[in-house]
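Work Package 3 (structural annotation) set out to generate three-dimensional models for the target panel prioritized at the project kickoff. During this period the team completed the workflow that converts sequence records into discrete structure tokens, so that structures can be stored uniformly alongside our sequence database. As a representative example, we reproduce one entry of 156 residues exactly as it appears in the project archive.
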Amino acid sequence: MVYKMFNCETLTGTHYEMGLREGRIFRHLIRWNVHTYAMRHTFQGSDPELGAGLERMRQIYRTLAPWVFEELQGIAEGSGVDYIWIERMHLRVWNLVPNKSLSPGGCTAIGMVTEGHGVVVGGTLDDPRQSYALVRRVPKEGIPHIQVIWPGTTPI
């Protein structure tokens, strides 16, 4: 099966700057993703288990990848979506209470460059194609890479 090629956007700078650019470039897609996934499946913070689950997830990220919060802040500001919704989508809020999940994660998706410098994309195809985007990430500190992203979340 052949799919329409992704356009590849380049994000550079600090994690906050990359998030800000992602938010601006993918503003409409981020809003769609937040509405479709985070808002539809969230518990509006009224469930005490949700608050506890979110805090457990925050602790995992503070320990393993504290830069995530800088990038999420940039995404929120760039897209104009409230930070709480960006964070809830990134933390997969719909997994926290119903499944009692503690695993930060999502779908597997990869991006590679061929010898001819074309991009080959693969993924699990468990969400609609329009939910994703292809980016080349060049962090100020870190390793440049190409990645299939779910706009509105960070790559970890």
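The chain has one domain: 8-149.
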